[in-house]
Amino acid sequence: MGRQQHIARSVVRTIITRTNGGARRSRNPLAFLLALFSALLSLYDLHLQKIRPADFANLRRKHWEVTDDAYTDSFQPGEGAGGRDALKSIGDMGFSGSTFYSTADQKYLVKSVPRYSEYSFFRDDLLTPYVEYMATHPRTLLVRICDFLGASGASLGRLLGIAPSHHIVMENIMYGRDVAKKRGDADWEDWDLKPTSYFYPERDIADGALTSEATKNQLADEFHGKIILSRAQADDFFSNLEADTKLLAEHNAVDYSLFLVRIKVPQPEAAADSGSSQAASEIVPTEGPSVPPSPPSWRTGVASPDGKHIFRAAILDFFWAKHKIQPRFMTLLITLYNVLISKKGPMSITTTPDEYRERFLKMCRGIVEAREE
């Protein structure tokens, strides 16, 4: 069994066996000692536990209308998986070394958070305000995190740094794409957007000649179109963005991104030619964790006034905080580079939270076209 399969198995085992309050199953002393010995020698199969399980269970049950049974069902193997593929590996490792998985039903994503500066910031600084904010702001664009898992105890893989020790389980903003793709009913596009005016060494040193195209492709996307919205939709969008980024700035977060999805809605003529009868109402999810609130929302999909597109959006990757050790070290390096070599300005990970928020909101406003009704 490979590295990613071992990691996936650890996550699934934790979700399925410890949904109710995180309590461990009892075991006899011999079984406990054998399990402990196995864990110590394991490279990838870590013993995980839920962090603040009651808080996340409360969000799921009371605010996102996700029952425990429905949640754990998503982590069961899909049809035809032969009992193996409860989680499917997706994407690449990225700059952070993260692993990504999707549940078989596509409702949830699992992302590893291997950097100490990131998972310690979320655990120690942002988790309490995040939980309180998500409970009182149902229309927030902050991605819904449904569980936070961390390794407990020592293991060989953890000590060597080859197995990520922390993972988040979050809603999948792309939920429904695979079904639509199989039916040929809708064309989905997505962008991971950050302000591109910052200094990116991979792109800006020697015009990117020192870095591979694969590395540069992992930088933030650029969206060259427009999100067509009514005035009321635009006001709702910006109101949520203002509140969400204010929370992040107050807790020193930078480098977060806007994940944007544009779904092309089949028009009547095209639908008739292809034999499709899909309507916009069939694209948006109607169950948790995407709701409540009831559609339309930015996590279920907001239809453009002309009915040609449905847009989804979420704020992701808000784990980089200016006051942690690694960000402070990076800030020092970029400051020295600007003084001694070439003045390029700050990176998105070394700027101030308020300055990043300002540029982020400016970027978001620049891609929206509001039409009067």
Automatic annotation (TrEMBL):
Residues 271-281 have a biased composition (Low complexity). Keywords: ATP-binding, Kinase, Membrane, Nucleotide-binding, Transferase, Transmembrane, Transmembrane helix. One of its GO terms (biological process) is phosphatidylinositol phosphate biosynthetic process. One of its GO terms (molecular function) is 1-phosphatidylinositol-4-phosphate 5-kinase activity. Pfam families: PIP5K. GO terms for cellular component: plasma membrane. Residues 1-368 form the PIPK domain. InterPro entries: PInositol-4-P-4/5-kinase_C_sf (IPR027483), PInositol-4-P-4/5-kinase_core (IPR002498), PInositol-4-P-5-kinase_N (IPR027484), PInositol-4/5-P-5/4-kinase (IPR023610). The chain crosses the membrane at residues 30-48. SMART domains: PIPKc. PROSITE patterns: PIPK. It comes from the Eukaryota. The keyword Repressor does not apply. Residues 271-301 are annotated as: Disordered. The keyword Transport does not apply. PANTHER family: PHOSPHATIDYLINOSITOL-4-PHOSPHATE 5-KINASE, PIPK DOMAIN-CONTAINING PROTEIN. This is PIPK domain-containing protein. The lineage of its organism: Eukaryota, Fungi, Dikarya, Ascomycota, Pezizomycotina.
